[in-house]
Design brief:
The protein is of the alpha+beta class and 185 residues long. The chain has a single domain, classed as 3-Layer(aba) Sandwich (NADH Oxidase). Helix content is 39%, strand content 16%.
């Protein structure tokens, strides 16, 4: 798959085939793509906690907001963390959020390229997540990512997309891009 094709094809998947395991080789490639992202001063302030066991998946689900219970069908959950030991003096500006965001986007596009679905959420209780997975204080949970093979027969996803997409329609090119000067629309 070409890069631009993968970017356009990527979408939020909320129903996975829990019985179809993600191959370790694919998982490694996805994580390698994530850590290949650029970062300010090459500090690479990210760490990815991969959760696959039923016991730890349950801990993540317990930390999720109720609206994200769909994640129980994802065979792999990845927590993208910011590593405070990699900060370089501009933490108050939260530049690490941008850097981790770049890595997460690489992860999402790589997963799409390899035929896997993903969905990113910020809907979790940080304290419960930290306690449940024993995340050291130096790491800051940024997002939780569901990963797996997309389910064939979906029930929940069309309902969620029906709601979110009717509220938030995709903006067209002219609404979000300006050349030289911003004209009020």
């Amino acid at each position: 798959m070409e890069t631009l094709e993968a970017i356009k094809k990527r979408h939020s998947v909320r129903e996975y085939n829990l019985n179809k395991k993600v191959e370790q080789e694919k998982l490694n490639k996805i994580l390698e793509a994530a850590i290949s992202a650029p970062s300010g001063m090459n500090r690479q302030p990210w760490h990815f906690l991969v959760v696959q066991t039923e016991k730890n998946r349950k801990k993540v689900l317990e930390a999720n907001l109720l609206v994200n219970k769909w994640m129980n069908t994802a065979p792999v959950i990845i927590i993208a963390l910011a590593d405070s030991k990699a900060f370089y003096g501009r933490e108050s500006e939260k530049t690490y959020l941008f850097d981790v965001g770049l890595a997460v986007e690489n992860l999402l596009i790589a997963a799409t390229d390899l035929g896997l679905g993903t969905c990113v959420t910020i809907g979790f209780d940080e304290k419960k997540l930290r306690e449940g997975l024993k995340i050291p204080d130096r790491y800051i949970p940024i997002v939780v990512i569901a990963l797996g093979y997309e389910a064939e027969n979906k029930i929940i996803e069309p309902l969620i997309k029906g709601i979110t997409h009717s509220i938030n329609k995709k903006k067209n090119f002219e609404e979000v891009v300006s050349f030289e000067k911003i004209e009020e629309i």
